[in-house]
Amino acid sequence: MSHVLQKKDFWAGVLYIAIGAAAFWIGRDYPMGTAGRMGAGYFPAILSVILMLIGLLSAARAIAQEGEAVGAIAWKPLALVVGSTALFGLLLPGAGLVVALIVLILVSAAASQHFRFEPKAAAGLILLVVFCTLVFVKALGVPMPLVGSWFGE
Amino acid sequence: METLSNLWLGLETALTFWNLAYCMVGVLLGTAIGVLPGLGPTATIAMLLPVTFGLPPVSALIMLAGIYYGAQYGGSTTAILVNLPGESSSVVTALDGYQMARQGKAGRALATAAIGSFFAGTVATVLLAVFAPPLADLALQFGPAEYFSLMVLGLVASVVLAHGSLLHAFGMIILGLILGLIGTDVNSGTTRYTFGFPEIADGINFVVVAMGVFGLGEIIGNLANESTRTVMAKTVTGLMPTKDDLKQMAAPVLRGTVLGSMLGILPGGGAMLASFAAYTLEKKVSKHPERFGKGAIEGVAGPESANNAGAQTSFIPMLTLGIPSNPVMALMIGAMIMQGIQPGPSVMTEQPVLFWGLIVSMWIGNLFLLVLNLPLIGLWVRMISVPYHFLYPAILVFCAIGVFSLNNATFDVYLMAIFGFLGYIFRKLDCEPAPMLLGFILGPMMEEHLRRTMLISKGDATVFLSRPISATMLVLALILLATVLAPAVRQKREEAFQEEA
């Protein structure tokens, strides 16, 4: 039997309680109003209390019952996929679409164990950048600078 | 008679050149992306949504519907050829479909899926045309109390009929409802949970949530257990079913269509439940249940018809009541709101062209699916063969640019990254993100109806029970909950979803 601290139900419960508590805490200043005239804080308060209760139930279930362990978290893909997406947002205005795309593609691709920088991959990279430039910027007119302000424009 | 004139109006709309073109492009794009392993209809639609925002509402919805059934069919193709169902509704198709492919009968399995889907789609479209108007009429008499109760019933039903833990499904719904509150409160103008960011003063765009949780989250999940896959049957032959095949599939297709149509209408129903139920049914009525899992044609015909019928009829509650019964319908509702259409019973009377055009185009789309997909199968096989490590960076690129283009804001890209992170964590904890999306879309509507009801009743909550329709729906929700919590049913439910393993 896995330890309580390893169980999925336990951590899901912790997550619900944390989010519910945060929502309740942040929402404490929103006007409650009355049942007949609900203020901005009424519905959020109800929901956050329910969420915390569900969290308690889930945590209690983890203690009372057998349950699956969370298992290893795939930190590498998690960090690289989330990180590369954020980097894209960061680089787009300053460095421009071309650089942002290359960084996004290369950093995210590194998350795969099959990733090798070989001619085929490089060709795919160039193809994708050209495709995005033509379709999104030229054809659809999404306002993204190809070369960003950092390079002087 | 009225139905006929309505259908005529629909035909006139759907048969214009551009709408036909959008329908076809939608079906093709949907199939092309849907065949990519690891991408289900929800992720596909979320990814392609920004493409449709520039179109007029009718064309946008026609294209989205096309993408939906295209993606679903694409998912089945992948399930049959590589045993990698892109989404839960083709999980059961993989059981027997993949076995057929291994025995060299991939062509027959694919043809069975296509023909079954087409037949089911046709029947479901007729049902939609017949049953939507009276339901919308009924819904027009609904007040805020009825709507609130209906949403409660819808959410409860979606929890009960979905697979996975009940408790977590509820947790995720509530979480979604809370996320839906982010932004400016329409009644008082108070900004809630924006953390001072003006970018989300109007709320978080649902595309950001969907792409983050379903797009990014799924990519991370897939990378966590990366495996090599082999495509069965590089060239698919024998697409034309024999007379014997047709005879064998006729009854399962019929049963699947009936079952799927009924389950699709239920809130929380839709394609997934339909295919599971149909598989179980086929196995029950079969004289040789031992053939199932070893390449039984009925095991493909029944579920495939059922999931397409269910996909189609799940439009009924969406179009008439404005209630999404599954995440895909939630996305459709989001798309309608972005197009400036308030989903609900008035859509049919105020936007007859849109309503009937969409219905007729669904049938045309199903025809496209049948006519185009069998000849194009070679192309789809080639697409499936693209290794995942080439694929997912491209998916990320499209998600990132798509989300950016919503408001031309990098803020949305960051937000998507956060939801991607959350999406993976939820998955890791067995918390299905689908109910969260339903809650997210319904959140603002639920609050609004609750407030209105309580305002009218002057704070008296018993109004939900004193109005007959509202009370009926709440009682139904309670019965559903009670039955599913009863030990006997609980076990049965777990068994029903066990087929997956």
The separation of the N and C termini of chain B measures 49 Å
Number of strands of chain B: 2
Shape of chain A: flat
Pair with the biggest interface: A-B, 67 and 63 residues
Number of helices of chain B: 23
Helix content of chain A: 55-70%
Whole-angstrom Rg of chain A: 24 Å
Low-pLDDT residue intervals, each spanning 5 or more residues of chain B? none
Rg estimate of chain B, integer Å: 22 Å
Pfam families (chain B): TctA
InterPro entries (chain B): DUF112_TM (IPR002823)
Protein name (chain B): TctA family transporter
Keywords (chain B): Membrane, Transmembrane, Transmembrane helix
3D architecture notes:
Chain B: Pfam families: TctA. Chain B: InterPro entries: DUF112_TM. Chain B: It comes from Microvirga lupini. Chain B: Keywords: Membrane, Transmembrane, Transmembrane helix. The complex is a heterodimer of chains A (153) and B (501). Chain A is mainly α and 153 residues long. Chain A has 2 domains: 61 residues; 77 residues, no CATH class. In chain A, 63% of the residues lie in helices and 0% in strands. Chain A is built from 5 helices and no strands. The longest helix of chain A is centred in the middle third of the chain and has 23 residues. Chain B has one domain. Chain B is 74% helix and 1% strand. Chain B is globular, with a radius of gyration of 22 Å. In chain B, 62% of the residues are buried. The mean pLDDT of chain B is 84. Chains A and B meet through helix 1, helix 2, helix 3, helix 4 and helix 5 of A and helix 8, helix 9, helix 18, helix 19 and helix 20 of B.
How would you sum up this structure in a few lines?
Chain B: The chain crosses the membrane at residues 15-36, 48-71, 110-132, 152-182, 203-224, 258-281, 321-341, 353-381, 393-426, 469-489. The complex is a heterodimer of chains A (153) and B (501). In chain A, 63% of the residues lie in helices and 0% in strands.
